[in-house]
Amino acid sequence: MIILFEEYHYTTEALSKVLTERYYFPVNGIYSKINFVGYYFNPQINDGKGDAIIIFPKVFINENNLAFDEFTPESLINPTFETTSRLSESGKDKLIFEISTWLYRAVQQFNKRHFYNSISENQFINQIVTNLDENSSTELDIILSLLRFHKENQDLFTFIAKTAHSQQNKISWHKTINKKQPIIQNNQPIYVDLATKRKRANDDEELLILFYSTLNHIREKYAFNFQIPQNYNLIKDHQFEMALKRGCRLLKSIKYKYFSDKMICLYNLLFTYFERSERTQSKKQIEEILLIKDFNIVFEDMIDDLIGDSSLFPELKNHADGKQVDHIYKYKSLLIEDEIYFVGDSKYYRPQNSVGKNSKAKQLTYAKNVIQYNIDLFNSGNLDQRIRYRENETEGYNITPNFFISAFVNKDFDFSKSYLRETGKPIMQFHFKNRLFDRDTLFVQSYNINFLFVLSAYLSRNSTLKGNFKKDTQKIFREKLVAFINEKYKFYKVKPNEIDFLNKHFKLLNGKVYKPSQLEKELILAFEKGSDDIESIMAQITTELEEKTEYTLN
After folding, report:
1. Are residues 388 and 313 in the same domain?
2. What are the distances in angstroms from CA 527 to CA 47, 158, 507, 514?
3. How many helices (H) and strands (E) does the chain have?
4. Quick one: pLDDT at residue 165?
5. Does 518 map to a domain?
6. Which residues face 128 on adjacent strands?
7. pLDDT digits over 354-388, tens only?
8. Range with the largest mean pLDDT of 42-56, 59-73, 244-258, 289-303
9. Final residue of a domain: which of 281, 310, 332?
10. What average pLDDT does the segment 474-479 reach?
11. Are 43 and 79 in the same domain?
């Protein structure tokens, strides 16, 4: 298996030996880069035997860019793994194979999720390059099926082994007495040469020998760590190469010896593997392609599967100006118990890159579009009463949370934890200073998440794991923004003693006052800490307040 990396600069001469020109693009006269991620089987390389090529996403290129200058088709190309000494060589091989299969399955999953969408409904379908249909079985598919069968049927293999060897050496006393000459000692016959029972050849064991020989061949070909039972005489090396050429004929000759569902399933898996091998050797094997250009759309789909809400109005994701929000979900507002939409954007970068000015501007535009959509519903009387964007009495706007989320590869290559962390303080944009409750005062948080966790969760069938992650992550996003705003603003909960209080002080309090739906007569005032007008404003209105207490968002 050959490992390549998206957007890494390889010599054009080296890439031309393993990929067709369609899949790499010149950077200059010497180097080219690949803008695809996924799986490609090239039947022409490896002395005509073909080989699988996995193109890793650029997030695997480490921060120091410690990749080698030359690409060697015979070796696994991996700049990231060169920086760690925690893994043994066999551990590295196993990990590379595992990540390769996860990536392959992720592109498969994305293709299946979007395959039936029309181009007009899904602009991403043009990005997928494949010659595989739903019923196609690539070499990697077959290998994964064989490995899965071995993992899930250990009890079956143990039973067959015990049955095959049970009573194999049990003494046949009838034959021993009739056919063997004893030694007489103290008038007692002692039989030195014993006759033992011999069972006929075990058909199940015959198929298992072929199965384990195939797994051993796969282990050597893909260099991953895999334990093969020692109690079988495996077919190896040149003998197995010969078996690959006549494997289908051999399997056809024993086809009708198997009746159990499990053994029939194993037979079919082996037949598929050997049939494919024969096609390759006869030069009938065609290239297999499952690649996607701009892997950011798969990353976006993975994140949205983890934290987004697909049940919302499509207009919340697909805006009238042509922009499309990556992630959006409804959650508890920053102000008491009202609800608000959290708007997110996936950022698919190398680890050393950060969010740029264009991305920040786009994200703020997404937020403004979401606000306007909900204000239109509010004005027409069709907005869900639990969702609050503007409040009529104060003409204040609720705080709209926004976030970026990008990925990194954990140094321990851990699939089990998200390692979700906030990166830096939220970005703030405003038209008027010290107006928290203004529609143009917006905040954008930035988060980083373990790519391998996202990858495994995307393919997981564990709905509980996904549900818990979504619940915990949405809570974290809210709590982190609440903590930042509490740090930046000072709040008061006040109860005016005059009916005309808001009209009288409208200009003074515009953008600084808001009334959540749970409060009947009280208002929330917000002042940026350190601002010069806190004391003067409070001095002007204190005499008109029946109650005044300091307040904290929670």
Report:
1. yes
2. 73, 72, 15, 12
3. 15, 22
4. 56
5. no
6. 292
7. 676 778 888 889 999 999 999 999 999 888 888 98
8. 289-303
9. 281
10. 95
11. yes
Asked if 94 and 172 sit in the same domain, the reply is no
Q: Cα dihedral sign for 138, 140, 141, 143?
A: positive
Number of domains, the chain? 3
149 and 275 within one domain:
yes
Distance separating alpha carbons of residues 430 and 244, to the nearest angstrom: 69
Question: 3 vs 394, which has greater pLDDT?
Answer: 394
Collect all residues with Cβ–Cβ distance below 8 Å to 447 and sequence separation of at least 6. 403, 404, 405, 406, 420, 421, 422, 423, 477
Does an H or E element contain 51, and which? strand 51-56
Token pair 């004893």 in the structure block, residue = 182
Whether the CA torsion 311, 346, 459, 307 is positive or negative: it is negative
Residues 553/436, Cβ–Cβ less than 8 Å: no
Supply the range of the domain harboring residue 314: 296-485
Q: Which amino acid is at 442?
A: L
Mean pLDDT lowest among 107-111, 136-140, 523-527, 548-552:
136-140
Is 50 exceeded by the pLDDT of residue 124?
no
> Do residue 114 and residue 152 come from a single domain?
no
- Tell me the C-alpha distance between 313 and 383, whole Å: 12
Residues 6+ away with beta carbon under 8 Å from 29:
none
Q: Is the dihedral of CA 457, 463, 465, 471 positive or negative?
A: positive
The SS3 call for residue 107 is helix
Verify that 306 and 445 share a domain, yes or no: yes
Alpha-carbon distance 117 to 214, whole Å?
A: 39
Same domain (yes/no): 275, 369: no
Band (pLDDT 50/70/90 cuts) for residue 522 is very high
> Of the ranges 33-37, 279-283, 415-419, which one carries the lowest mean pLDDT score?
279-283
554 in a structural domain = no
Q: Which carries the bigger pLDDT value, residue 414 or residue 122?
A: 414
The CA–CA distances, whole Å, from 125 to 1, 94, 249, 485 equal 27, 32, 41, 41
CB 110 within 8 A of CB 298: yes
| Residue 189 token pair | 């016959």
Q: CA 73, 79, 82, 88: dihedral to nearest 10 degrees? A: -60
Which of 485, 508, 527 is the endpoint of a domain? 485
CA of 172: how far to CAs of 49, 163, 167, 195, in Å? 51, 18, 10, 6
The answer as to whether 551 is a domain residue is no
Residues 254 and 322 in one domain: no
535 within some domain: no
Give dist(CA 328, CA 546) in Å, integer.
40
Provide, rounded to the nearest whole percent, the portion of the chain with pLDDT above 70: 81
